[in-house]
Amino acid sequence: MAKSHVTIKVNGKTVEELVEPRTLLIHFLREQLSLTGPHIGCETSHCGACTVDLDGKSVKSCTIFAVQANGADIRTIEGMANPDGTLHALQEGFRQMHGLQCGFCTPGMITRAYRLLQENKNPSEEEIRHGISGNLCRCTGYQNIVKAIQYAAAKLNGVPFQEAAE
Amino acid sequence: MIPSAFTYHRPSSVQEAVGLLAKLGDDGRAIAGGHSLIPMMKLRLATPGHLVDLAGIADLKGIRSDGNDIVIGAMTTQHDVVCSDLLAGKIPLLRETALLIADPQVRYMGTLGGNVANGDPGNDMPAVMLCLNATYHVTGKGGGRRIAAREFYQGAYFTAMEGGDVLTAVRIPVPPAGHGAAYEKLKRKVGDFATAAAAVILTIGGGKVSSCSIGLTNVAETPLWAEEAAKILTGSSLDAATVKRAIAAAEAITSPASDARGPAHYRTKMAGVMLMRALARAKANAR
Question: In this predicted complex, what is the ipTM?
Answer without folding.
Answer: 0.96
